[in-house]
Amino acid sequence: MAITERSNGQQARGQPDPAAQQRPPEGDPAAGPPGHGPVEEPPGPRSFGGILADPTIRPWLQRGVVALVVLALVWVASSLLLGLVAAALVVVGDVVRRNRTASTVEAWQKASAVERKTERQLRSLEKNGYRVLHARAVPRDDDGVSDGRIDHLVIGPSGVYAIDSEAWDKRLPVRTLSHRKLFHGPFNKKDRLDETAWEAGLASKIISEQVGFEVPVQGSVAIYGPSIPWKVMRVRDVDVYAGNRARGYLRRRPRILTVTDVERIFEAAEESLPPKYPDSD
């Protein structure tokens, strides 16, 4: 999310036959059978620059160049067999590295490093019946505009969770006070917890209206960086835990949803909570 100007020269010379204007010229190769538009020419061969610009081909070209260099160096220093083995290891290693660091969600182009870490943990839960949406906006009831974002909305047998991934300074300790306050060094994280609880509560309301029954959404914060001296602590109605425990946090909970419930809730959430970055879709 062009107007073509036509010459009036024919009308200046007289009144032509309207039917003749509508008929394509005889022998015009662009005119197809009656009722059909112009015949599209098949695309020509791609240029070398176009091939290099293809994001699916460029990584393989880069791997190939590096593999050839490694092959040549090892061949000269040792033997052809060792060179082939080294080149193969280079290619396999790069494929594994890219798969581990790349996000599986095309719309999520602005993911942070800690968000990608949580995503990798959640990806392994798919075989256990969990469905995940990343970087979803939480629209307000009145105008559909949202200031909030749920990093990971997880729907699975143990329930529905809104997880925010946080990178905190590892030099500052994390502590709680009476399950009502969370401190990172001298900083009170009350506002951050209240924001997560608000996002989870609004997501619960929106999804519940879509499916026709109440769907509680538990807010949680996965913290990366500082040491967390507990497994899971609920502070201001938000679960707080170390980022590397995100997968265990979900798996250790009792099953409360059926496969049908999970799929129904997932479809409702996907429809009612839009991607935060729709321009990347």
The radius of gyration computed from the alpha-carbon positions, rounded to a whole number of angstroms, is 29 Å
Output the CATH class name of the largest domain. Alpha Beta
Question: What is the N-to-C succession of helices and strands?
Answer: HHHHHHEEEEEEHEEEHH
CATH topology of the largest domain: Trna Endonuclease, Chain: A, domain 1
What fraction strand?
15-25%
CATH architectural type of the largest domain = 3-Layer(aba) Sandwich
What does this entry look like structurally?
The chain is of the alpha+beta class. The chain folds into 2 domains: 50-101, no CATH class; 113-280, Trna Endonuclease, Chain: A, domain 1, CATH 3.40.1350. It is 39% helix and 18% strand. The protein has 9 helices and 9 strands. The longest helix is centred in the first third of the chain and has 22 residues, at 80-101. The relative contact order is 0.11. Mean pLDDT is 78; it is low at 1-44 and 100-109.
